[in-house]
Amino acid sequence: MGRNERILVVEDDEDLCALLCRFLASEGYAADGVHDGKAAVSRVKADPPDAVVLDVMLPGMNGFEVCQELKFHRDTTLVPILMLTALSDHESRQKGLWVGANAYVTKPYDPTDLAGKIRRLLDHRRELLEHKVHSRVELCMESDSLLRQQLNDLLSELLLHTPLSEDEVCRIRYAVLEMTENAIEWGNRRQKGLTVRLAYELTDAFVKVVITDQGSGFDPRRLPHAANDDDPVTHLSIREKLGLREGGFGIMISRGMVDEVVYNGAGNQVTLIKRFDGQRLKDDVGRMKGSAGGEARD
What domains can you pick out in the chain, each with its CATH number? Predict the structure, then answer.
């Protein structure tokens, strides 16, 4: 059962919103609802709830836009967002995870499953708040959607524990997602059973992310289907001849978003490094630990 945590339900169907609020109340949560995206953003920024249940199909500002607006800002990044939608296609699910959603439930949903996911999100949020320390985490996933959920946790950690600006964190996240997608699509060729391993390390001086696939590797200096700084468009005609989807800008863009992009000799591992002022990081971590201690005493 809930412990009186506050849940904001964002649903344009007023009857469904009220029904979901009643269900959450029966689970022990203090649930309230709003019916459009702009109202949701205003409410969360003014008084962050413990979690948000967010419909995708909203008037004006849709759920993806709401999620990105909240997740990519330091003050609201730790608010867990469960996206709730009738859209069941893979592309919509991927988009929700790319903009920072913590979980995704498709209508019609099992109330027990919904309550379980909310509970897990709230428990995980509490763990993030209680363990504000430097870290090194290694993930090994077959599912790209599960991997992206873990990357969304990385976004929250970088916003909490580094002096990086929100824009800098967003650029790092973009670079990591691009390189992860390359590892899944080009390294593992989307073969079932092959995994992508991601390790990130946070220190006083830098954040480092290492992405490794199980593919045969390649020479990143010789990629005719990828964009490059000298001639960023020629590859488009090559991709068309090869029958590849539009794209090919990932490596070039990523190099502009972090300080270093380094491939290993085999070409199946890429390291991304972003440096920052270590003293500012120490000061920020010390301040947050002091704040956490004060909250615990209240």
Answer: 6-126 (3.40.50.2300), 177-297 (3.30.565)
